From TrEMBL:
Keyword annotations: Cell membrane, Membrane, Transmembrane, Transmembrane helix
Membrane topology per record: Multi-pass membrane protein
Entry protein name: Lysine transporter LysE
GO CC annotation terms, alphabetical: plasma membrane
Cellular compartments annotated: Cell membrane
Organism, scientific name: Bordetella genomosp. 11
InterPro entries for the chain: LeuE-type
Coarse class of the protein's main subcellular location: membrane
Amino acid sequence: MNAVFSFYLPWISGLGTGLGLFAAVGAQSAFILRQGLQRAHIGSVLAVCAAVDALCIASSVLAWRAVADRAVWMMPAMAWCGAAFLAIYAVRSARRAWSAGGALAPARRIATTRRDAMLAALAFTVINPHFWLDIVLIGTLAQAFGHNAAAYAAGAITASALWLLVLGGGARLLRPLFRDPRAWRVLDGGIAIVMATLALRLLARVV
């Protein structure tokens, strides 16, 4: 019985922390939502995001101290790269929102190949300082559970998988709404605002 509690208490704590960190509208979430609405290789996109999240969470729990001490330059560099990446995507989303003629395109055809979709999913995950801050925070908090840190990591990984499933399923439920071209324009406009805001926040941290 004690062994069961020693696993589930850290797991529940990791689950709660993970949901609090991951269940937010950010760059990765906006990208997944759009891919889901397009039915553009959403399974592959979710698989890439889930695999990267799990790998990074596990690695952080095992070696967070070494990463923090030896790669102090990482966060500023990632901030600049992430801001540039998000700014480009914001401009593209704004152009789609502005163009009435292009609003129906996502509903008519798949916009990217599977390879492009998976690479974009990878980029939205790793070229994002907020992601690394979350990963480092999880690794740090896990240390409080000692030899049960792995259970805490498992809870955080579960939270990541649940949020990705919610995004994928939510996009499917919302698909009837997005038969209207105006809904696509509103979505793209919202995505552009989210991306631009995140880019400015990243720049504010390093400038």
